[in-house]
Amino acid sequence: MITIKELSDENLFTAGHTACPGCGVAMSIRNAIRVFGKDTAVYVPANCAVVFGTTFPHGAWKVPFFHTAFENTGACLTGMQAAFEKKGKKVTVVGFAGDGGTYDIGLQSMSGAAERNEDIIYICLDNEAYMNTGIQRSGGTPFGAWTTTTPVGSKIQGNQRFKKNLGDIVVAHEIPYYATLSIGHPLDFIRKVEKAKNMKGFRFLHMFTPCIPGWKMDPAKTVEVTKRAVESGMWTLYEVENGEKKVTYKPGKMKSVRDYLNMQGRFRHMSDEDINKLQMWACKKWNLHYREKGAPDICEIEPHVEHHAVTEEHREMHGP
Amino acid sequence: MKKVITGDHAVAIGAKLCRVDVVPAYPITPQTLIIEHIADFVNDGELDTKFLTMESEHSVMSAAAAASAAGARVFTATSSQGLAFMHEMLYATAPLRLPVVMANASRTLGGPPGIWCEYNDSMGARDSGWLQLYVEDNQEALDMIIQSFRIAEDKRVLLPVMPCLDGFVLTHTVEPVEIPTQEDVDSFLAPYDPDIILDPARPAMIGTFMPAEYIMELRRQTVGAFECAKDVIKEVNDEFAKKFDRDYGGLVDTYRMDDARVALITMGTVTSTSREVVDELRQKGEKVGIIKLRFFRPFPSEDLRKLVTNLDALGVFDRSISYHGGGPVYNEVRSALFGMTIPVINHLAGLGGRDVTKEQIFKMFELTSKAAKGEKVKDVNWHNTRGETV
Asked: Is the Cβ–Cβ distance between A110 and A76 less than 8 Å?
């Protein structure tokens, strides 16, 4: 297993791209591609990474890059892989799709590629809404979150549905590898990317990627917010290898979701009742992934401590 | 060697002879026999290709574009609703200059649903950047798959090509077809050797985000490729004729046009029926002929202007309707002949797969001849259709 020290210093996704400061997507791509190395070809469907990484005549990619549309990552990766295989080239074929491009419009294409067990790596960069089009709700948006299509109105406040359980949908295809990743946990991140790289068949890496304008948060806190998501159970770190599920990082005592929500403007409007609903969802997820076999369900949460939340200065910059 | 085969079988054999690298496939009537035959070739070890059973037509064209961008020779086939479903990807393939060849089994695009021959599926793809051609018989279907790859992959062109064959009339009807030898096809069609592909040894970015400062030049380059295609189509036709002894004429073909005063523009299998009608009218002393429109894109405007110079009237057969505007071919022809005084009469027939009989074609010539004599004839005429046109 490679360590961070051993990772190549050569940037295959170079500086100069125009992603927002603190962009979780850019950090994930840059670190993943360092593990994949030069013999890689990527497909990126419609998402921010096409705009900030490839606006002609500039380009941040130093590996072959292809883009055509939004909903076809699974299919395009299939075509690329087939061509490379036919031509006898050994290339790691990787797709970087967003949550909208995977949970919603690209679900069919992803499912087709997974079911055929194509020899490709599908990465879902999950920032929990359609950020490239200006923050609209997707199937990956959590309960309560403000987006422009789940506005905070006088009658209805925020997203009324809970985040879709994409992991189970992907795993149900009986693929060789599914893993959840967080840029707040770099060792776990690199290990999973490397593992996926060295396996065959359909591999799915589900990356949790904070979006500064979409989440209305401090650009300096990308890593911290990711860590808090994991500590509160809003994001869980595990992998499913050939049907065997393994938790790769288990936090100590479960932290309150408030610790995580308070860092972001998108949850600022939430009532105590709604926060409790989301807390129950997080507890369920926590028990699903972390509960020992035979042990009772737990929902013991560490008392919430008021901490450095969204600053006034930040609110002025980014709105409520 | 001659074989009695369906149009779909002929297309599949054509693709096999072209040694296609990747075939993404999805079933749809009446194209399905094509991909079934290719699956047989692959599973019987007769064809070394990556046969991909995709989960939709949209994914078929996505995989086709991606495989082509990665340097593979790609073939697929579709029809009607399937073509409509991949519409977005048609537009992605052409300006990225990916020379995919896709047969389209012409079928009515619902609603209301139907499965028989109409051209409203492919006519909707007119502006997608694909070269588009229509074949008359199963032999031409096979031959045009081979020619299509030569045209598509020519570095002056580098555009996808869509050969269309009439649903059921050709796809499911057997005819004797001369099968070229692999050796002859290999000497006619070299392996695909693109300059820019997705290759880690020489990384390229294909399909980058394009600001307004650059996109007009890209559009104009694609139009330039269409202009080049006009010459390439003729060159490829002539070379094919020399090698295989079958000459299809180029963008258009003609029948008994030398001294014709009245002509009908036809497409697809209706051309064959029209040939018989022309022979019978000629026996009666009428100077009539046929212009067989082979390529709809690029559109043979210059050829048409030359061909109609000595005509008194021109009829245009259309197998689909541009709602409230006559048929799409009629509109293209009128546009191409702008400034010429010849009357151009539209004949709509065979929509939804209704048979186009000799009687209907006689009527088309009759109405067009009336216009030639200066008599008043409607611009757009619905043949063999119940009810009145407004």
From this structure: no
The answer to whether the peptide bond before residue A21 is cis (omega within 30 degrees of 0) is no
Chain A stretch 23-62, residues whose beta carbon is closer than 8 A to a beta carbon of chain B: 38-41, 43, 50-51, 54-57, 59, 61-62
Encode pLDDT of A190-230 as tens digits: 999 999 999 999 999 999 999 999 999 999 999 999 999 99
pTM across the whole model = 0.96
What is the 3-class SS of chain B, one letter each residue? Answer: CEEEECHHHHHHHHHHHCCCCEEEECCCCCCHHHHHHHHHHHHCCCCCCEEEECCCHHHHHHHHHHHHHCCCCEEEEECHHHHHHCHHHHHHHCCCCCCCEEEEEECCCCCCCCCCCCCHHHHCCHHHCCEEEECCCHHHHHHHHHHHHHHHHCCCCCCCEEEEEECCCCCCCCEEEECCCHHHHHHHCCCCCCCCCCCCCCCCEECCCCCHHHHHHHHHHHHHHHHHHHHHHHHHHHHHHHHHCCCCCCCEEEECCCCCCEEEEECCCHHHHHHHHHHHHHHCCCCEEEEEECEEECCCHHHHHHHCCCCCEEEEEECCCCCCCCCHHHHHHHHHCCCCCCCEEEEECCHHHCCCCHHHHHHHHHHHHHHHCCCCCCCEEECCCCCCCC
Within A223-271, strands assigned E span: 237-241, 244-249
We report the CATH number of the domain holding residue A164 as 3.40.50.970
Residues B76 and B102 placed together within one structural domain of the fold:
yes
> How many angstroms separate the CA of residue A307 from the nearest CA in chain B?
41
- According to DSSP, the β-strands at B161-166 and B131-134 are parallel
The structural domain count of chain B equals: 2
Residue finishing a domain among B244, B279, B313: B244
Largest Cα–Cα distance in chain A? Answer: 61
Cβ neighbours of B53 in A, within 8 Å: 116
Q: Structural domain of residue B283, as residue ranges?
A: 253-382
Work out the burial of residue B124: count CB atoms within 10 Å of its CB; fewer than 13 is exposed, 13-18 middle, 19 or more buried.
middle
A139-160 confidence digits (pLDDT tens): 999 999 999 999 999 999 999 9
Chain B: residue whose CA lies nearest to A106 = B59
Q: Which residue has the tokens 């879709």?
A: A164
Does residue A164 fall inside a structural domain?
Answer: yes
The span from the CA of B382 to the CA of B351, in Å, is: 10
Report chain A's mean pLDDT, rounded to a whole number: 93
Q: What is the Cα–Cα distance from B345 to B318, expressed in whole angstroms?
A: 11
> Are residue B306 and residue B363 in the same domain, yes or no?
yes
Query: How many structural domains are present in chain A?
Result: 1
Tokens 């009357």, located at residue: B343
Nearest CA in chain B to A113: B54
Both B216 and B295 in a single domain? no
Kindly state whether residue B389 falls inside one of the protein's structural domains: no
Segment B268-280 shows an average pLDDT of 98
